[in-house]
Design brief:
single chain, 265 residues, alpha/beta, Rossmann fold, 10 helices, hydrolase activity, Alpha/beta hydrolase, BD-FAE-like_dom
Length: 265
């Protein structure tokens, strides 16, 4: 296995680390997006064991870091970073023989939110430009973008409106978006994966049965709305708590790895 770090911007948090398996041409790429309720005290070290494991199992993995609330992230910079970080794969494809016809995101918790949100980038223009800067809207519409072809959401925060109402993690949504939905309604709508339903790419909403960090209803309401709209979404319960999903030794994580392998096959 080889690993190499690349920056996609000038900020210290704008980087990713590419983990490559010991095969000539890995099929597709897995973008690993860590969680932590979008707060700066949690970083890409959470995704590193997953990226290592994926590479060990023959997959190229891109462990993505991004600016979070508290270190220059939040609205709109976290969103711009995730899209720019995924697009960086376009520059790395030739150098490393990466096939970009299959690019699957594996996102945990807040990373699940960012993964599903990024998978809907082509639908964002239909929501109208929010009170963001225009640079984010331009990046979302970029014709040269690297598009996700599937997502495995691991206990993702997929319904921001409900997460705000429930005051998850002591106001994490408002902290992330710079204010409440009452103050910034367009911003909240633009950021909510529920707004982009239905997506045409397959989404697996995987959730731990003993998760007391992100409620099961977050995956359930998203999957229900998406299915009702005709989207290829599947809701799966797996044994374990919130962090079993990012423990390479846990059955919950192994199920996620199997789903990623299916999407790349």
């Amino acid at each position: 296995m080889k690993r190499q770090k690349y920056h996609y911007g000038e900020d210290p948090s704008q980087w990713g680390e590419l983990f490559l398996p010991d095969v000539a041409a890995p099929r597709g790429v897995v973008v690993v997006i860590h969680g932590g309720y979008w707060r700066s005290q949690y970083g890409a070290e959470l995704g590193e064991p997953l990226a290592k494991d994926l590479a060990t199992h023959g997959m190229a993995a891109w462990n993505l870091e991004y600016r979070r609330a508290g270190n220059g992230g939040g609205w709109p910079n976290t969103f711009a970073d995730v899209l720019a970080g995924i697009d960086k794969l376009g520059e790395l494809a030739d150098e490393h023989g990466l096939g970009l016809d299959r690019v699957v995101a594996l996102g945990h918790s807040a990373g699940g939110h960012l993964a599903v949100w990024a998978a809907g980038r082509s639908r964002l223009s239909g929501l109208g430009a929010p009170d963001a800067d225009r640079q984010l809207a331009r990046r979302a519409d970029d014709g040269g973008a690297v598009h996700l072809t599937g997502v495995v959401s691991q206990s993702g925060v997929l319904n921001l409106a409900a997460a705000e109402r429930l005051n998850l993690s002591n106001g994490a949504v408002s902290n992330f978006l710079g204010g409440s939905s009452e103050k910034y309604p367009k911003r909240h709508k633009y950021a909510d994966p529920m707004s982009a339903v239905p997506l045409s790419v397959p989404i697996y909403a995987v959730h731990g049965t003993e998760d007391d960090t992100v409620p099961f209803s977050q995956s359930e309401t998203y999957a229900g709305a998406a299915k009702a709209a005709g989207a290829p979404v599947q809701l799966l319960k797996v044994p374990g708590d919130h962090f079993a999903l990012i423990d390479p030794k846990a059955p919950a994580y192994r199920k996620c790895r199997e789903l990623v392998q299916q999407m790349l096959a």
